[in-house]
């Protein structure tokens, strides 16, 4: 049982809110600089999200500020704790790693705030950090214990061979992954992701999260990856260097974004671009396991060249019989035409959804780039969809309120 934080500690942490709002990103950049002095600790992180402009710097700054603002109402942070715990399980961050983060964070606060970081402030933040750390460690231990109790479950890194590689569009390729040990794999929840570790021999390993794009089956996983022209090269390495037969490593499926085992309402699935990947997992599951469920899948992409898995989605809808499909092209190419290659030219809007899908009665699942999510989540909230029926997955760290 955790000892509650004292009123004095809470007051001291809350007093730092203005400083955190003003200097939060400098503090987190400084923290990572201090933390990554150790190469073994640096290797735990997805370096694609680090650096001065890295999304993780902004996400951590926002999380620290939110913690300070809600330290007397930690129930408000439960969704964040759950998300972080799943990320930590995915990246195989263990209890013994927490002291390094504590030292780096407290040192960064002291360095950036200078004389304002009194011994009392540093002591209070140390107590607050370890209070939250114990909550996270407890949740992560529970998740790992649950994984080991399930058929095919494991913890840590496990070797998978690339059994197949399929080009799905001009920018998306699928990879079928089978365990090298030949044993069963954990049946994931439709919508969850894998954390992969891979890279060229002799170079630091890259770690990336990729949504699983097939239904749970106990035998293999499939990921469908967009080749990004810019960035730190994880997707390009998979597209250009990985071949059938190559081996990569994965931690168990993780994530709190998934279709319920027994959906209680109709479902509306909304995706933009490569955000279709968890939706394919959900659609395959709906077609196989939920014959009576009303489902609607609305997908937005540029055009027919970038439109992945179109035929597969149509076949799933036909097989299920109660799934309707609509596709939006925002930048049709020559030869693309409404009612032929796609249904609507333009972008998915809440007004279109209200006229064509049961958004007042359904659970709504969204996945896609940040502008796609920000626009639709805000629009859905404005037309009266309750927040507890809007479920979303963002690829990468969440650095701000998407409903703002």
Tell me what the structure shows.
It is a single chain. This protein has three domains: 143 residues, Globins (Globin-like, Orthogonal Bundle), CATH 1.10.490; 97 residues, Beta Barrel (Elongation Factor Tu (Ef-tu), domain 3); 128 residues, 3-Layer(aba) Sandwich (Rossmann fold), CATH 3.40.50. Helices cover 39% and strands 19% of the residues. The protein contains twelve helices and twelve strands. The strands form two sheets. A six-stranded antiparallel β-sheet has the order 4-3-6-1-2-5. A six-stranded parallel β-sheet has the order 10-9-8-7-11-12, sandwiched between helices. Helix 1 packs across helix 7, helix 2 packs across helix 6 and helix 5 packs across helix 7. The longest helix has 31 residues. The protein is globular, with a radius of gyration of 22 Å.
DSSP, total strands:
12
Biggest beta sheet summary? 6 strands, antiparallel
Mean pLDDT level: 93
User: What is the global morphology?
Assistant: globular
Kindly estimate the percentage of residues that lie in beta strands according to DSSP. Answer: 15-25%
Query: Biggest sheet: strands side by side, in what order?
Result: 4-3-6-1-2-5
Q: Structural class of the helices, strands and pairings?
A: alpha/beta
CATH topology of the largest domain: Globin-like
For the record, the count of structural domains works out to 3
Gyration radius, rounded: 22 Å
CATH architecture of the largest domain: Orthogonal Bundle
């Amino acid at each position: 049982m955790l000892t509650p934080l004292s009123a004095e500690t809470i007051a001291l942490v809350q007093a730092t809110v203005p400083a955190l709002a003003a200097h939060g990103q400098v503090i987190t950049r400084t923290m990572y600089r201090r933390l990554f002095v150790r190469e073994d600790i640096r290797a735990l992180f997805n370096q694609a999200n680090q650096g001065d402009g890295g999304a993780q710097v902004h996400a951590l700054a926002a999380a620290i500020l939110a913690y300070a603002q809600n330290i007397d109402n930690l129930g408000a942070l439960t969704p964040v704790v759950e998300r972080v715990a799943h990320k930590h399980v995915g990246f195989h961050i263990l209890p013994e790693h927490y002291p390094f983060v504590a030292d780096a964070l407290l040192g960064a606060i002291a360095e950036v705030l200078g004389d304002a970081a009194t011994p009392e402030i540093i002591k209070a933040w140390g107590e607050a950090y370890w209070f939250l750390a114990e909550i996270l460690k407890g949740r992560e231990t529970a998740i790992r214990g649950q994984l080991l109790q399930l058929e095919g479950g494991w913890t840590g890194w496990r070797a998978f061979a690339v059994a197949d590689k399929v080009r799905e569009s001009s920018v998306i390729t699928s990879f079928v992954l089978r365990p090298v040990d030949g044993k069963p794999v954990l049946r994931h929840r439709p919508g969850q992701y894998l954390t992969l570790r891979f890279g060229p021999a002799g170079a630091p390993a890259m770690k990336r999260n990729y949504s699983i794009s097939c239904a749970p089956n106990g035998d293999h996983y499939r990921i469908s990856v967009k080749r990004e022209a810019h960035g730190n090269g994880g997707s390009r390495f998979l597209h250009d260097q990985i071949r059938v037969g190559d081996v990569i490593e994965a931690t168990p499926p993780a994530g709190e974004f998934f279709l319920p085992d027994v959906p209680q309402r109709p479902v509306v699935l909304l995706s933009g671009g490569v955000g279709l990947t968890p939706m394919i997992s959900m659609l395959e599951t709906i077609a196989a396991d939920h014959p009576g469920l009303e489902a609607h899948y609305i997908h937005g992409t540029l055009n027919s060249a970038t439109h992945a898995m179109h035929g597969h989605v149509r076949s799933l809808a036909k097989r299920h019989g109660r799934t309707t499909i609509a596709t939006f092209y925002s930048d049709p190419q020559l030869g693309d035409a409404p009612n032929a290659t796609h249904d609507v030219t333009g972008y998915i809007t809440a007004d279109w959804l209200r006229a064509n899908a049961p958004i007042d009665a359904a659970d709504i699942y969204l996945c896609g780039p940040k502008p796609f999510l920000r626009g639709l989540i805000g629009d859905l909230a404005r037309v009266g969809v309750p927040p507890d029926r809007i479920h979303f997955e963002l690829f990468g760290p969440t650095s701000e309120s998407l409903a703002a």
